[in-house]
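Before the break, one more example. Copy the sequence into your notebook; we will annotate it together after we see the structure.
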Amino acid sequence: MAASTVVSLRLPPDQAERLRQMARRLGRSASEVGAELVAESLRRADFAFIEFRNSAAGRQAFIQGTRLAVWQAISVLRAFEGDVLKAAAHLRWPEAKMHAAVAYAKAFPDEIEEAIRDNASVDFQKLSRLLPGIQRFEDSQE
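Here is what the structure looks like once it is written out:
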């Protein structure tokens, strides 16, 4: 674990309670959750078009105004051999959003590569644990 520094801050009682509730829901301490929220806020301030959302894989960086996580945008970009213009056109995005994904991925490559690896490792068995009752449809055309 990386070294950390203690920073004290004051929250209004209602915000402190909301933080404690969130921490309980996540099974973590208020300090851990607060630190994560501050880190996300700093990243949002540093990177245009980036926001954080809960997903089945945990909190992830997403491109604002889209349904794609940054790692998904990078996967699309790789499918277009790194051509930002073509990838942005494919997604019907302004180029600035694809450039934002690239900038974030360059700053946090381990986070993005881990998400891409995790996605590649999902098979039907793993998916069926997340989505009970899922059925496999086979192409019956021969």
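The longest helix spans residues 30-46. The chain has a mean pLDDT of 92. Try to locate both features in your own notes.
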